[in-house]
Write the structure tokens for this entry.
Amino acid sequence: MEPQYDVSVIICTYNREHWIGDAIQSLLDLRTEGNVQYEIIVVDNASTDNTPEVIAQIANSSDRPVRYVREPRQGPSAARNRGIAEAKGEWLAFVDDDERADPDWLLELLAMTAKKGVRVVGGAVQLISSEASAQPLSPHLEQVLAPGGRRKYECRFTPKHALNSGNQMLHRSVFDEIGVYKESWTEGGEDTELFTRLYSAGVEAWYTPKAIVLHLVPPYRMSAGYVQWLSLRQGWSLARAEVEKRGTMHAVCMAVARICRTILLMPQLLRARVSGNADLLVFRRSQIWRTQGYVRGILRCIAPEAFAQEKFLSQLEFRGERQQFA
């Protein structure tokens, strides 16, 4: 008979041999107070580096179950869905390969489910530099790189404060009710799309600042080039979500409104440039790039043949980050 667990912790990875070991170790070091049985499932999304060897070495020396699964279908949705299919736990917790879980992370998530009587919870995401000698991140960069998971108080998740897939736990019954991740969402936003379905179904989700993961920020993620890529991706996926949820006409109106707001941002952009505050300038530019991505997404939805933008779209695919910047 196969063992059953209270929690299956799922971590998906792609070409992160230099980070995945520390990520898994943080999960092995989780405190349970002897009351929680959990397994770790590492889904390798077709890595081409030494990721399998790194995971195998850890699994062979660990007393806790660490299962390696290779998922050849590319994309975070396919990887997470494979983890869901493989999991043997009643609860499914998710963390990313560039994150480190606080020792009490799992206990705090479980405590929140009991406190609120809910089937979905999420926690805080704190940014840390991957370079020991690096300077602390400015609030402007934090707002761009980690828009969610930064609140200091308990609250219910809403469309304006959505669940973060890098720090969440859901009861297995939620996926039975609303379905799993949509694998066609390869340009990002798949986690927001899942939350939209969850929210529409009336499934209550709560945030706790006590369940903490540390999110690594390498130097390239502080560059204007990366922030541009991220912002374009966010705008594109938001446009797609708007079209699916509210229809093309509403999305077009939102695009016009965004363009108007962007025009009004120009004086602030100019002041940031004159002040010499590089982080503030990148933050202001990110708002413009997000609008650009949104408009391009709307154009493709309206006239996919005339505005196919295949080259642009291929650059937004989640592997684009590690191929272009890492």
About this structure: Strands lie at 5-13, 38-44, 66-70, 89-96, 99-101, 120-129, 155-156, 167-171, 205-217. Residues 223-324 form one domain.
